[in-house]
Amino acid sequence: MSKYYITTPIYYPSGKWHLGTCYTTVICDAIARFKRMQGNDVFYLTGTDEHGQKIEKVAAEHNVPTKEYIDKTVGELKDLWKLLDISYDKFIRTTDDYHEKAVQRIFTKLYEQGDIYKSSYEGWYCTPCESYWTKSQLVDGKCPDCGRPVELMQEESYFFRLSKYQDRLIKLIEENPEFLQPASRQKEMINNFLKPGLQDICVSRTSFQWGVQVPFDPKHIVYVWIDALTNYITALGYGSDNDELFKRYWPADLHMMGKEIVRFHSIIWPAILMALNLPLPKKVYGHGWLMLGGDKISKSKGNIIDPFILSERYSLDAVRYYLLREIPFGQDGMYSNRAFLTRINSDLVNDLGNLVSRTTAMIEQYFNGAIPYPEQATEFDEDYIGLVDGLYSRVSDNIDKLLVPEAMENIWEVIRRANKYIDETCPWILAKDESKRKQLATVLYNLAETIRIVAVLLQPFLTECPAKIFKKLGIKPALYKNLKSAKHFGRRIYGFRVNKGEALFNRLDIEKELKELDKIAETIHLKDEFILQEKKRREENLLNINEICIEDFEKIALKVGKVTACEKVEKASKLLKLTVDLGEGRERTIVSGIALWYKPEDMIGQSIVVVSNLKPAKLRGIESEGMILCASDVEGNLSLVAPIMNMKAGSEVR
Ligand code: MSP
């Protein structure tokens, strides 16, 4: 048993989670599960990078104390990892007390031994933005962010002697090609950063407070990347009283990250470790990005990239499968709804789903549901079994090389071959001839055994369907937790009773789904717009809150209404047309912009509060006679306002 320490970067808790965010974590999860299921002693670390001006600013925009904002978004990130079945062993937060203390100890140690020194930093400073810029970053000599004038300023700062490690870093990357992968990143680091010459880096800031204080000079805050990178060792207890985990797991076997942060991991991080005289990570891997229309995926209109929506609609396994399979590892990959849906239909429904349902149906039909004993080989068996028998080693070789999509392809090659084996052997023809019964038994055993091997090997990648497959085969998953149980073809699974049951994955009507996803995307887009408007309105309202007197308020006639009918307004995604009883002996029509939150069928029978003396107005050609009251917030939530007791239609609200 070997130890295996694998890490993702720690995430900025900025609250914008999308499919791209999940990429690193799902890939690492599959690798961690794979290694664990091979019997290794795995430690999988992830967490959040919570300090720095950026986070402070985002929290301020939400008008909440920084820590309160972060606690909420970290909670949401943990929910996302739960949804995606991420099997991390530890979640570190850089605001955790033990981490902050360890960062301070590390900073002090490096200062005391001379790797960090105090000097002065010179740059062009924009006071409103609290940012330094180099001369080449300025636009027309002004701040590139806000366009205001900048001044040349000097500030006392601490510096890390990065330049001292330049030669050792070049040697590390050049002489140890396994350290930085894929190989293209080696040239990039050597040619763009190391060969031109490394400068010492400024590792403290005084322009903001949200971070770890330099213990011996508290007006300085430790540079967020120094704070963040050290998480990989502080999470194991380095710099604390208990460094048992550190001794057990360090050095990391794999630091995985997106390509944009390879520089920090392959230059600054090893240099810090060299300064601390610690062993270096065995491998740093910079993967490509999941792209959307040419840009790195981010929360935006168009395609659905919300992992919650996608997995609720199409299953978690569909989302994990797509992330693990679609993007050539190390390169960028383009997301589209069509590619996602096509993968589900072709690979999960057609290839895997069909194989399982055809095999179990035939075992039910020809052998009364019991997996038969293989008695007589067919002419196709040798070639076929040869391919299935070598599957474990092909998959595990590819995982060792971090070729995750290739490992998935190995499994699908066997699934497709098994479907072909059915077509070659034609069990339905064998079934018609009693003298071929032994061959039929062998074919169906071979198929069941293939499915078992496939299910065993799928466990690290897909976390729901392997258990369903085991159930359909009537075999106990507990027996097959170790991947090595997939090493050899020919386990004694005969006699187990299969159960075809429901389909593993449902076939999708792709064109229909694309339309549905477009509708959902539009709703998300409109909600985002709503949030922006709400923020703006609040900012403006805060400035103009006018007192009114009771006489002003009495001019507004608020009444309880009962909704008797409701429908969507055609070609207006935000609007509902409601028929409302206000106890007047006639019903009113009211058009309201609540369609993003309420479906017409949810509205019928609802009590609502209506501004009943509002002058009628035409909305999309419909005369609206009143306005419905709602509560809303800047998070994009909206709720109808209604009396908490059942009140008659027409009751006054005052
Ligand atoms: N906080 C830093 C990392 C510090 S590690 C000491 C950071 N955080 S991040 O939240 O911006 O990114 C976390 C991970 O998500 C990175 O590996 C990043 O590359 C990955 N991704 C974010 N968007 C992505 C895509 N669209 N596609 C693939 N991965 C992407 O960087």
Task: Give me the side-by-side strand order of the main sheet.
Answer: 3-2-1-11-12-7
Radius of gyration: 31 Å
Assign an overall shape.
Answer: flat
Q: How many strands in all?
A: 25
User: Terminal Cα separation, in Å?
Assistant: 73 Å
Small molecules held by this entry:
5'-O-[(L-methionyl)-sulphamoyl]adenosine
Provide the structure class. alpha/beta
**Oligomer, anyone?**
single chain
Q: Report the average pLDDT across residues.
A: 92
Helix segment count?
Answer: 22
The parts where pLDDT drops under 50 for at least 5 residues are none
Biggest β-sheet strands, sense, barrel: 6 strands, parallel
- Helical amount: 40-55%
As a percent range, the share of strand residues is 15-25%
Q: How would you summarize this macromolecular structure in one to three sentences?
A:
The protein is of the alpha/beta class. Bound molecules: 5'-O-[(L-methionyl)-sulphamoyl]adenosine.
List strands and helices in order, with pairings.
Blueprint (H helix, E strand, L loop, with lengths): L2 E9 L7 H19 L3 E8 L4 H9 L4 H18 L6 E4 L3 H16 L3 E11 L4 E3 L17 E10 L5 H10 L4 E2 L2 H11 L6 E2 L1 E2 L15 E2 L1 H6 L1 H4 L9 H6 L4 E5 L3 H14 L8 E4 L2 E3 L2 E2 L10 H8 L1 H10 L7 E2 L2 H31 L13 H9 L1 H10 L3 H22 L1 H4 L6 H22 L6 H9 L36 H34 L6 H5 L3 E11 L7 E6 L5 E6 L7 H4 L3 E5 L5 E3 L2 E3 L2 E2 L1 E3 L5 E3 L11 E2 L1
Parallel strand pairs: 1-2, 1-11, 2-3, 7-12, 11-12, 13-15
Antiparallel strand pairs: 4-5, 4-6, 6-8, 9-10, 13-14, 16-17, 16-19, 16-25, 17-18, 19-22, 20-21, 23-24
Helix pairs in contact: 2-3, 6-10, 11-12, 13-16, 13-18, 13-20, 15-16, 16-18, 18-19
The structure holds 5'-O-[(L-methionyl)-sulphamoyl]adenosine.
The site of 5'-O-[(L-methionyl)-sulphamoyl]adenosine (MSP) has 20 residues, from strand 1, helix 1, helix 7 and strand 11.
